[in-house]
Amino acid sequence: MPNFNKLIVLASKLASDEGVTIQEILRDNDMGYNSRSCIYQDFYNLENSFGLTPYKTEKNRGKSGREAIYRIDKEEWNEFKSEFLTRTFSDKERRRLSFMLESIGSLSPLVTVSTDDIIPKLNSIIGDISIDSAKYGGYFNLEATNILDTLLEAQETKELLYITYYGERKQLFVIKCFVFSGGTYCYVMNQEGKSYMLSVQRIERVERQLIKKNTPYPKPDVDIEKALSDPFGIVRETEEFDAVVKLSDGQGYYEKEKHWPDNVKIEREDDHWLYKVRTCGAYWLKRWVMSLGKEAELLEPEWLRNEIRCEMENIVASYQKQ
After folding, report:
1. With a threshold of 0.70, does the pTM exceed it?
2. Span 18-38, pLDDT tens digits
3. Strand order, beta sheet including 168-180
């Protein structure tokens, strides 16, 4: 069986503006060819497997000036790349792959800093894949995976579903599936555009309509991109508020190096740092501040500061009990 990665690299060289000679391929140690016959065999494999036909041009180059330059048609190569995903994967597999890539692209620091080289290379092979703010994760059995597949399809097609959640069956549209804090969730909305969030693992049943009706897709009452860019407000608990957290010198440097969304500002002030964010996620902000212990102090808003104080007093009281 031909080496898929080697064929992709070979095809990209043949499709370049300069083309490539046999000697240049042999001198490229990364490609690993050790004979002309192996190269000609992969020329055949490109045609047989990908439908791309290498041909000898009238131009030559090399030390002798007699090395033929080989090419493949660039339009055929571009067509192959753009259709590769649909040729290789079913629609269900494609949706799963896109969801997985969204996970990596948004929350993995390694991929975040490698976007300039990894994502273009991926796109050069399989065409454009959108990288949005979502993350795939959690523990899934077969039933939960099938539910996720149906949700991802409905997200794409804007199909109205029957979703049973905590024993209540409702007709809902799927706005967006995503991962937050290790759990997989989806924003859904009713036919009036009222949106809220569900845990995918806790969805009991998903059913398609037996008779599909042309139900208008409403305008969601949530800006999904804005919601997913709020580091604490995935669950919309309150109206948006401005928060300021005082961070120790060491913690501030650490948080400064993280990949935070644009609505977070981290500024140096004297011997500490100020972390500023506009969010609607009081619960997760409170949990984050408390998890940092003495390295963080919530300065604003006062009402949330009071909640933290009361919770910490209750914690101290519980530890003082015999």
Report:
1. no
2. 999 999 999 998 888 989 999
3. 195-199, 183-189, 168-180, 161-165, 203-208
